[in-house]
Design a protein that fits this description.
By secondary structure, the protein is α/β, with parallel strands linked by helices. It contains 11 helices and 20 strands. The protein has 2 domains: 156 residues, Rossmann fold; 254 residues, paralog of FGE (formylglycine-generating enzyme) (Alpha-Beta Complex), CATH 3.90.1580. The strands form 5 sheets. Strands 1, 2, 3, 4, 5 and 6 form a 6-stranded mixed beta sheet that branches. The longest helix is centred in the N-terminal third of the chain and has 16 residues. It starts with a helix and ends with a strand.
């Protein structure tokens, strides 16, 4: 296929992909599927997903997959195997406003594993940088892919395994926000088919690996903490600029004038979780906090959130399966009095996190979508979407809606949604 044909096809491709406000100003990067060399079936695809997840967490690029290109450009399977590193293909991507392309391979040579990644400048159709590394185990290979991706794109290196062992179990930042270290590990994400209260969107249940530890907010972000951000920046939330937050009125969700984070329609004090926030408000708060403290902050992925909520449990709740115990751990329909409550008043889960069940819903980083089948490592959710995930249930819901696996598609600015943050080590 010549360049004159390829370029208009790719123009169609990118016009079909729905852009969202959070991604409009980010440069585009295409991540080509890693080529397998003497590895078990599907392993290269798993590592490609891990690489995409790592790049997504950097928050610097809008990511496109090889599949996006294949579907609308009409490439055959054989054509896709040739990659897109030719001058012709790179120029075509560059003219479609794609800034970078990453491609490479993973494999096994004797008793060693290898990863080779290359970064291409699509605007000028040339190779920018290449990395080749070796290791001895599959777990090391996962870290190697993550490290290589960060190095290619100039991101700070993650701490080594030895350094992670020495990390503090808790962390308090310069404005007094407390964070708890969540260890790396594996868990079953979603719920089994026989769990009471289960919804269809909680499956299929699958094994997920969280490959690196991370700090998660001990509490939901408080009114006082959000107020400090607003005072420092004169920030206006989505609800303030659009005439109010979305609230429940006679079995319908409607935007209500005057309902905002500082006037949510319920009684709140400084130690209550802030509400009436859109996903973009939480992201903007995280950016401000990073600038103020010198550390990177972001929303948790949906997988990170559920992993942290479970704290080792595979039952409906972090404390077991008996909903009658819920009042000891969270605020919900039966005990909240119809409003939010101060953070940290109930028991924490076994990892020291408060209010993971109830009080307010919490924004996650991911777009909302169906779970794919099969194992995953550090999944970052769908690459595209129109609305984000919320987790945790809230003060106005029954016990079944506060289970670890409960998930919803969030309403922008809803009066029952807040957030907590991840601080990257």
């Amino acid at each position: 296929m010549n360049t004159r044909v390829l370029i208009p096809i790719l123009a169609v491709l990118f016009s079909f992909i729905p852009y969202v406000s959070a991604a409009k100003d980010l440069p585009k990067i295409v991540v080509w599927d890693l080529s397998p060399r003497e590895t078990k079936p599907g392993y290269a695809q798993e590592l490609t997903s891990i690489l995409v997840s790592e790049i997504s967490k950097m928050g610097k690029y809008e990511i496109y997959s090889q599949e996006n290109v294949r579907t609308l450009a009409g490439f055959t399977a054989e054509k896709m195997k040739l990659g897109c590193t030719s001058t012709q293909c790179l120029l075509a991507l560059g003219q479609m406003d794609v800034a970078k392309l990453i491609s490479g391979s993973v494999g096994k040579i004797g008793n060693r594993y290898s990863v080779s990644l290359s970064l291409f400048d699509t605007q000028n159709a040339k190779a920018e940088k290449a990395i080749s590394e070796f290791c001895h185990t599959e777990d090391e290979l996962i870290e190697l892919v993550q490290m290589a991706g960060r190095q290619l794109l100039g991101a700070p290196a993650e701490p080594s395994a030895a350094e992670r062992k020495e990390m503090d179990k808790t962390f308090t930042n310069s404005i007094g926000m407390e964070f708890v270290l969540i260890p790396a590990g594996r868990f079953l994400m979603g719920s089994p088919a026989n769990e009471p209260g289960r919804a269809e969107n909680e499956g299929p249940q699958r094994e997920v690996q969280i490959t690196k530890p991370f700090y998660l907010g001990k509490y939901e972000v408080k009114v006082s903490e959000f107020r400090e951000f607003v005072k420092a920046t004169q920030y206006k939330t989505d609800a303030e600029t659009k005439g109010g937050a979305v609230i429940r009125v006679k079995e319908k969700w409607e935007r209500k004038e005057g309902i905002t984070w500082y006037s949510p329609g319920i009684s709140q004090k400084d130690d209550h979780p802030v509400v009436c926030l859109a996903w973009s408000d939480a992201v903007d708060y995280a950016k401000w906090l990073a600038q103020k403290t010198g550390h990177a902050y972001r929303l948790p992925t949906e997988a990170e959130w559920e992993y942290a909520c479970r704290a080792g449990s595979q039952q409906a709740y972090s404390f077991g399966s008996d909903a009658r115990e819920l009042s000891k751990f969270g605020w919900y329909l039966e005990n909240s009095g119809g409003k939010t409550r101060p953070v940290g008043q109930k028991k924490p889960n076994s990892w020291g996190l408060f209010d993971m069940h109830g009080n307010v819903w919490e924004w996650c980083q991911d777009y909302y979508g169906k779970y794919p089948a099969g194992r995953a490592a550090d999944p970052a959710g769908p690459a595209r979407g129109s609305i984000r995930v919320i987790r945790g249930g809230g003060w106005a819901l029954p016990a079944k809606d506060l289970r670890c696996a409960e998930r919803r598609n969030g309403f922008i600015g809803v009066d029952r949604v807040g957030f907590r943050l991840v601080r990257t080590p």
